[in-house]
UniProtKB/TrEMBL annotation:
SUPFAM superfamilies: YjgF-like. Its EC number is 3.3.2.13. This is Chorismatase. Transmembrane segments: none annotated. Gene3D superfamilies: RutC-like. CDD domains: YjgF_YER057c_UK114_like_5. One of its GO terms (molecular function) is hydrolase activity.
Length: 338
């Protein structure tokens, strides 16, 4: 269980019969053997994402708050907010091309964020079916997705628009499922990794428009000028802009964890004007995505050595955004409390 400013909490539920926490629910993300459309149920936003096979235990990521929640639907988006935090989920149906529907979905989300006045987007997750396959026009689906996203960001934020930490990972079903967290107040600072080229600056060999995301995002609650919650984006075995150690899962794990450690380090946070520093042991909620099921023992061993015994870690066997990447890891390090 991880706690965030103003009582926001992420809870991992491994059983549908789990005892309710007694708090207000903003959003539920169910990792299932099938997709389910965004909806409002029991006053909360909810989405089901096809990320596990029939033999794998289902888990649900639950975002909770201390404050009463208002929920609703807006242009096929399911949302809930409590006056300080907004959770929003959407889904793009399977199709031959994703550029236009992704652009439209992002525009709807930007419109909703503006209408409800939650201007600080802290974190975005995307789950993309057939992520490495070609679309109807021969473009890789991930690149097709990145093109639509970039055009929506251009429209609302300008070509140099700053985007937060994000994950873009494969899913076992078609279409694209996604969700985000935003805040009404506080301060968002997006972070880069000195070992990596910023994703928006990738060369054209990775597609007509590069991915739009930061390597991590620090969110400081109102009244806190320095350290905040640290959201580490989906991270992989990339140095500069190139994949390293193709085919070697152990070495890819080492580089991935090294990249995460660098972006969280005091050296890097100070370079971004934040008087703070974290280590991998500070991560409390970690998702690990592994391309090949046979690599899971190696990845589990690396994660057990790197992360705290108190971290909640979940593993999924899905494709990664580049066909030569074997593992991707993300995590959240909550604001330190006495």
């Amino acid at each position: 269980m991880a706690t965030y400013p103003h009582g926001l909490r992420c809870r991992l539920v491994r059983s549908p019969e789990a005892t309710p926490s007694g708090r207000h629910v903003l959003g539920r993300v169910a990792f299932l053997g099938h997709h389910s459309a965004p909806a409002v149920r029991a006053g909360a936003s909810e989405i089901g994402i096809h990320l596990v096979g029939a033999e794998v235990e289902r888990v649900t990521e639950v975002w909770e708050t201390d404050s009463p929640v208002v929920s609703g639907m807006y242009q096929d988006l399911a949302y809930a907010h409590d006056g300080e935090y907004l959770f929003c989920a959407g889904q793009v149906p399977e199709g031959g091309s994703y550029r236009e529907p992704v652009r439209n979905a992002y525009r709807a989300a930007f419109d909703l964020i503006g209408k409800l006045d939650y201007p600080h987007v802290m974190r975005i997750w995307h789950f993309i079916g057939d992520i490495n396959r070609a679309n109807a026009d021969g473009m890789e689906i991930y690149r097709d997705f990145c093109l639509g996203r970039a055009e929506a960001v251009d429209h609302h934020l300008g070509r140099a628009g700053d985007m937060p930490a994000a994950t873009g990972i494969g899913a076992l079903g078609g279409g694209i499922s996604w969700y985000l967290l935003a805040s009404r107040s506080g301060r968002v600072r997006n972070l880069e990794n000195p070992l990596q080229v910023p994703a928006p600056s990738y060369p054209h060999l990775y597609g007509p428009r590069p991915p739009k995301f930061a390597r991590a995002t620090s969110f400081s609650p109102p009244g806190i000028d320095g350290a905040g919650d640290l959201f580490v984006a989906g991270t992989a075995s990339i140095l500069g802009h190139e994949t390293v150690h193709a085919g070697d899962i152990a070495k890819q794990c080492d580089v991935t964890l090294g990249n995460m450690a660098m972006v969280m380090s005091r050296e890097n946070l100070l370079a971004h004007g934040i008087d703070d520093g974290r280590t991998l042991k500070d991560l409390r909620f970690v998702k690990v995505y592994v391309r090949r099921a046979e690599d899971l023992p190696v990845v589990r061993a690396a994660c057990a050595a790197a992360f705290s015994d108190t971290a909640e870690i979940v593993y999924f066997t899905v494709d990664i955004c580049r066909s030569d990447l074997l593992v991707e890891i993300e995590g959240i390090a909550p604001y330190p409390r006495s």
